Amino acid sequence: MKALKWDEDPPALRSPILVAAFAGWNDAASAATTALETVAESLETERVAELDPEEFFDFQVTRPTIRLTEGQTREVDWPMNAVYAARAPSAERDLVLLSGVEPNMRWRTFAGAVLEAAERLEVEMVVTMGALLADVPHSRAVPITGLASDPAMVERLSLQRSNYEGPTGIVGIIHDACRQRELTSASLWAAVPHYVAAVPNPKAALALLRRLEQFTGIAIEASELEDAMDRFETQVDRAVASNPEIEELVRRLESELDEAPELATEEMPSGDTIARDFQRFLRQRTDGE
């Protein structure tokens, strides 16, 4: 069975860049997938291919779901990775979007299928987006790390050469596949406050989106995401103000980020304890609104 299935003949695109984001390990607070969804909603998008879920998922780990259509017919939604052509008439290039869920198995085959799609669509560069948990305050600008292996791109876009060693996700495997095929690739990572990771973070999604615009030269309409960011900041500010332990944590993180003297943290609860309590508090507030 072929892993990559085309819905139709690959369309002709203008100097396309492939942009990918995956729900799961690489997507703290849904920041990367939210950013990619905003890109898709802003451009003229059509699905052109899918990667067969039967090949890449353990359905006891990533289970399909049942939904009702028109209140009567029961349909199964399988975990899916799909490829979309996204045209940007006002820009000089188009995009290819890869959206879905990090696969459970056969990562090398999965990456090969992604690169097959990229080659058939004549993609010139691959950019992945991700988000990770970090000791950063929600009240400051979202730190975005851009990584690339190509020295010219590192210099031109003020990126960094990655020197990370350790566990990786599917994005790391895709970048390695790009390296082997000599296809230029880069990755964008947003740092998400660990104490507010249980709810989607539109502020981090918007920061990823604005950095992506620099890569692609394509302006993305994101007014809904901007409104969601304002609501998110208001909600988190209220929650922080009502919890002295978290308020102290945020002040300490701000102080460290601003290179000011550290605040006293005697008998401060662990970060895991604070994050768990704060996430419960936010869920309660959301349910009550």
Give your account of this protein's structure.
By secondary structure, this protein is of the alpha/beta class. The chain has 2 domains: 4-220, Rossmann fold, CATH 3.40.50; 227-288, no CATH class. 38% of the residues lie in helices and 23% in strands. The protein contains 8 helices and 10 strands. The protein has helices at residues 31-42, 107-120, 151-156, 170-180, 202-216, 223-241, 244-257, 271-288; strands spanning 4-6, 17-23, 44-51, 65-69, 73-77, 81-87, 95-101, 125-134, 144-148, 185-193. An 8-stranded mixed beta sheet has the order 1-3-6-7-2-8-10-9, with helices on both faces. Strands 4-5 form a two-stranded antiparallel ribbon. Strand 6 (81-87) and strand 7 (95-101) form a beta hairpin. Helix 1 (31-42) packs across helix 5, helix 2 (107-120) packs across helix 4 and helix 6 (223-241) crosses helix 8. Residues 260-271 have low confidence and may be disordered.
